[in-house]
Amino acid sequence: MANRRSVPIVSATLALTLAFPLNARTGHNEVNVVVNFGDPVTLAGAGNHVVVPEEVLIDKDQNVTFVVHGAGHGIALYPVSANTTRDGIAAQLCGHDPVTQECTDPLFANGDHTILDGKGNVIIVTGPNPPFQRVDDPTDRLFATSTQVGNLSGVFLAGATETTAGTQLQFRFTKAGRYLAVCMNRNHYLSNWMFGFVTVGPGREDEPH
Ligand SMILES: [Cu+2]
């Protein structure tokens, strides 16, 4: 469902990005790709717990701006192997009812889960909740917005509402590779599959001549 929904939004986002390159350095060709963290139309419920688009492709040294929609989201970013797929990650998360698309195990999100990439490398170990209130494994992670310190879980990001813009976080990808962006909300990620990928190409200077 998210795939179908993402198509027109990607087009609109790219059009906006190209129409308004807000960069004070004239002559500097800045590319900024928007990834919506939370569905920008459906602002509540499981339908909000998606990353739109689920896949983006950029060149090295380009930016991704994560724009947060709806409530309860935290963003964490991990490098993964190039052969890591959406299906491969989803197969390690809560199984979904084929009709309702809902997680069939209400206890799943609080369990201890280990997420592997396509090569079998350990990417995320969640530990159980309690005490781990977030999807919050710092190992090899590039950044996290809502990490737990001691017993205090980090606050989630302010998302866009009908009338208010949400948090906009920009990350500059300086190394080629494939990256997994997950929601740090255990229910959103582990139960509702709220994750997406950024693939970073080698960049022009690295291309063979
Ligand atoms: Cu979320």
TrEMBL record:
Signal peptide (residue range): 1-24
Gene3D superfamilies listed in its UniProt record: Cupredoxins - blue copper proteins
**What keywords would UniProt list here?**
Signal
Name of the molecule in the record: Blue (type 1) copper domain-containing protein
**Organism encoding this protein:** Luteitalea pratensis
